[in-house]
């Protein structure tokens, strides 16, 4: 979602800075097609994905080439957001697999939502804490990584061994708190 918001902001900057083109052809930023496009973008920003999807699809036949690719991209965004709400999982483990697939494809916010959703329904889901720790390590959230990994290890000590060999924690390797968590002192 963050990436899509950046694209919408980028579009607005680009549209605001564009100047009318020479010749008899009107500027894309002034015609009715552009106004419909702006309205569709606004629906997207408001989270009204079904309405935004319909508005972007309607523009496919009449949008100028300058807007056509953006419309297609936003259609894909709307479809993905709508599909996300229609997901059902038979088991929490299946839900976890989906969250990991989101993580692996770089949809970090979506992955975080899925892990949080698992934990809301299953507060002792050690694998969800481990998944959050992975996500936090990959996104530079050191403190959250340590907290979630500690919780995963407390619920299931095998995660201590798994984290030692997991390359996704490479960014944490130099943190003494991480090392202490994985290699606690034996009294």
What does it look like?
The chain is an all-alpha fold and 187 residues long. The protein has two domains: 2-13 and 31-85, no CATH class; 92-182, Serine Threonine Protein Phosphatase 5, Tetratricopeptide repeat, CATH 1.25.40. The protein is built from ten helices and no strands. It has helices spanning 2-17, 32-45, 49-59, 65-85, 92-104, 108-121, 126-138, 142-155, 158-165, 176-182. α2 (32-45) packs antiparallel against α3, α5 packs parallel to α7 and α6 packs antiparallel against α7 (126-138). The chain is elongated and about 70 Å long. The relative contact order is 0.07. Mean pLDDT is 83; it is low at 15-26.
Summarize the helices and strands and which ones pair or pack:
Blueprint: H1 2-17, H2 32-45, H3 49-59, H4 65-85, H5 92-104, H6 108-121, H7 126-138, H8 142-155, H9 158-165, H10 176-182
Helix pairs in contact: 2-3, 2-4, 3-4, 5-6, 5-7, 6-7, 7-8
Summarize the structure.
Helices cover 70% and strands 0% of the residues. It is an all-alpha fold.
């Amino acid at each position: 979602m963050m990436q899509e918001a950046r694209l919408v902001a980028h579009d607005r900057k680009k549209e605001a800075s564009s100047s009318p083109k020479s010749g008899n052809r009107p500027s894309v930023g002034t015609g009715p097609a552009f106004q419909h496009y702006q309205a569709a973008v606004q629906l997207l920003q408001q989270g009204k994905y079904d309405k935004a999807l319909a508005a972007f699809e309607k523009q496919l036949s009449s949008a100028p080439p300058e807007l056509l690719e953006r419309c297609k991209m936003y259609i894909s965004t709307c479809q993905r957001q709508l599909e996300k709400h229609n997901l059902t999982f038979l088991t929490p483990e299946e839900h976890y697999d989906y969250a990991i697939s989101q993580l692996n494809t770089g949809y970090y916010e979506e992955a975080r939502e899925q892990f949080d959703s698992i934990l809301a329904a299953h507060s002792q889901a050690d694998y969800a804490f481990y998944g959050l720790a992975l996500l936090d390590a990959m996104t530079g959230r050191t403190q959250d990584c340590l907290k979630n990994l500690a919780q995963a290890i407390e619920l299931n000590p095998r995660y201590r061994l798994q984290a030692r060999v997991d390359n996704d924690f490479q960014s944490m390797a130099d943190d003494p708190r991480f090392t202490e968590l994985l290699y606690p002192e034996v009294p």
